[in-house]
Design brief:
It is a single chain. By secondary structure, the protein is α/β, with parallel strands linked by helices. The chain folds into 2 domains: 170 residues, Rossmann fold (3-Layer(aba) Sandwich), CATH 3.40.50.720; 128 residues, N-(1-d-carboxylethyl)-l-norvaline Dehydrogenase, domain 2, CATH 1.10.1040. 46% of the residues lie in helices and 19% in strands. The strands form 2 sheets. Strands 2, 3, 5, 6, 7, 8 and 9 form a 7-stranded mixed β-sheet that branches. A two-stranded parallel sheet has the order 1-4. A hairpin with a 5-residue loop joins strand 2 and strand 3. The relative contact order is 0.11.
């Protein structure tokens, strides 16, 4: 559900592994996939699938075993309201979206019993409609039931993913909430500082002033998560700073790329969410508040800012 870079990449790899996959898309991506199929350009192996089953209306697919929910955060409610025809008695919906708000939003629409939690680690973009380009070797999917149980549906999906091992690595987690928050810590820092400075991570981490702010942003997210009861390590901010230090110097974030293109920004669900959740648990978040304030007027894209 949402055949952008993430949905197309993981869906395409699952098709190659023998899974029965339907892609739900719209606009140029829908037209290109109907006409020319789906191409994946990747250091882990190129792939061209033609034809692929791609539709615009979920009702034309019917109930499925699992939905990979990969729309942008601002489309969560709109897309979530269209999930009904896909949901059977045991259907799992696995959101690979950024942030920590998506599952709560989806639970109100389809019921928490249908949700599994997930995170993915990959650098991929839609190079042009119908063509997904991956940068680097990392392509990893971590998922699990929200209550930590190992269920038949989780085990079944794990086995399907293992068949796609050439295309991505997979892990079934017994504490997916912590995994989601660990990625959230990193993602907030990376998106905040590359977008705020309009510079890649190499420059951000090498300047003492911007490095210090990056560290502050990370520490605030960890403090909020721990205050909410998430079992984050006390030194999680330092661990994620080390991850940032190991990234290619030219790497940016999807939010930075959205800013450059004049698209909507997810800042309200990233630094903005840290501010909101911090108020709920009584944790001060001045660095994230500064990021959110600086980017908020551009969050709705160029047309709104103009």
């Amino acid at each position: 559900m949402g055949s952008g870079a993430l949905g197309s990449y993981f869906g395409g790899r699952l098709v190659k592994a023998g899974a029965d996959v339907s892609f739900i898309a719209r606009g140029g991506q829908l037209a290109a996939m109907r006409e020319s199929g789906l191409k994946i350009e990747s250091p882990r192996g190129d792939l061209h699938l033609q034809p692929v089953r791609v539709v615009s209306d979920p009702a034309s697919v019917g109930p499925v075993d699992l939905v990979l929910f990969t729309v942008k955060l601002w489309s969560t409610l709109e897309a979530g309201r269209q999930l009904g025809p896909l949901i059977g008695r045991n259907t799992a919906v696995l959101s690979l979206q950024n942030g920590v708000d998506a599952n709560g939003m989806l639970a109100s629409l389809i019921g928490r019993e249908h949700l599994m939690g997930g995170v993915c680690y990959i650098a991929a973009t839609v190079n042009r409609p119908g063509i997904v380009q991956q940068t680097g070797q990392m392509a990893r999917l971590v998922f699990g039931e929200l209550d930590g149980m190992r269920t038949h549906r989780a085990e079944d999906f794990l086995e399907v993913c293992k068949q796609a091992k050439a295309g991505f690595d997979v892990e079934l987690s017994s504490d997916i909430e912590r995994a989601i928050w660990e990625k959230f810590v990193f993602l907030v820092g990376m998106s905040a500082m590359t977008t705020l400075t309009r510079r890649p991570i190499g420059l951000v981490r090498s300047d003492p002033v911007t490095r210090a702010m990056l560290h502050d942003v990370l520490r605030e997210v960890v403090a909020v998560g721990r205050a909410k009861g998430v079992q984050l390590a006390p030194d999680e901010a330092e661990k994620q700073l080390a991850v940032a230090d190991a990234l290619p110097a030219g790497m940016t974030s999807s939010m930075y790329r959205d800013l450059r293109r004049g698209n909507l920004l997810e800042v309200g669900w990233l630094s903005g969410a840290v501010v909101r959740l911090g108020l709920e648990v009584g944790v001060e978040t001045p660095a994230n508040r500064a990021v959110y304030a600086a980017l908020k007027l551009q969050a709705d894209g160029w047309s709104h800012a103009a």
